[in-house]
Design a protein that fits this description.
about 60 residues, 2 helices, about 0% strand
């Protein structure tokens, strides 16, 4: 059981990191991780939302 707990802990850590970029889609992230671990191919499509990015002036 210890090995399964380690895999679950690692999977949750990966999901938490990915969710910092893909916000509000935990089910999608979980399925994506499962597909990656199963050596599957993944296509991720979603609505692109514009996020303002600060631009720094000349140094």
């Amino acid at each position: 059981m210890a090995r399964a707990d380690g895999v679950r802990t690692a999977g949750c850590a990966v999901m938490d990191s990915v969710e910092k970029v893909i916000v509000g889609k935990r089910d999608v992230v979980r399925l994506l991780l499962a597909a990656l671990l199963a050596d599957g191919e993944e296509v991720v499509e979603d609505i692109i939302r514009s996020v303002p990015v600060p631009v720094e002036g000349p140094a």
